[in-house]
């Protein structure tokens, strides 16, 4: 097969690992910068041009679409799908996953455990929002934030009101979430491929940091999930319609609570923590779905 990784940076760990895994499984690999693709639309003849050449005979793609280029990246994935090319992450699922509020609504409908979350269009409802998630301390998140950016812990009700007013003044939409104290600044990342958890790690925030993101200096270690945690990760991934996903969960006194379902989860942290070849699992998933 010819498998293309949609990535803007061939030097990224995840991109290199996927290319290596493609080759190790006996396939042809190529890297395509999705922002350099040109989409052509014609009746029953969708085409993609890249570096002046018509892209043909590609069997599958693995989208690695950054949050800042979701719109165009998703359009390119959709175009490949129209050309009958299998995508490890479907375009519609990618769009859903990038909308934090919509994602949480989908997960709620599916019966997945979440920290209590509230959203209002204006900071004039801040008192209601704060009260509804149990008061301070609480977490306030930008709907467009990634990698722990745009996430604030408000220690008091007044601080929460001030933060929401500040974001409102910048026309930035936020959600408020219940603070799960017993999580202790840690979360779990379960890596799901084709409905199976292929690896899991516990991420611990550095001293004094409530965010556990590795990009923010957190550390990761391998963890064995409980049956409930594993089922929750699989259920959340299925609800979002994703073939490949990183499910972030908190361990709480009420069981696992899902924070986010990531459609382009990085491979470096999970592979180093678990010593598992996650990239190979993604290629095997493609092999099962491409004739």
Question: Could you write a compact summary of the structure shown?
Answer:
The chain is of the alpha+beta class and 291 residues long. Helix content is 33%, strand content 28%. The mean pLDDT is 93.
Topology:
Layout: E1 2-6, H1 13-24, E2 28-32, E3 37-40, E4 47-50, E5 53-54, E6 60-63, H2 70-82, E7 86-87, H3 91-98, H4 100-109, E8 117-119, H5 126-132, E9 138-142, E10 151-154, H6 157-169, E11 174-178, E12 186-193, E13 196-204, E14 219-222, H7 227-240, E15 244-252, E16 255-262, H8 268-274, H9 278-289
Count of alpha and pi helical runs: 9
Instruction: Count all strands and give the number.
Output: 16
* Shape category: globular
Question: Regions with pLDDT < 50 over 5+ consecutive residues?
Answer: none
Strand order of the largest sheet: 14-13-12-15-16
Order of helices and strands: EHEEEEEHEHHEHEEHEEEEHEEHH
Structural class: alpha+beta
Mean pLDDT across every amino acid position:
93
Name the helicity range: 25-40%
Supply Rg: 20 Å
Termini Cα gap: 9 Å
Strand content: 25-35%
| Main beta-sheet strand count, sense and barrel state | 5 strands, antiparallel
Oligomer type: single chain
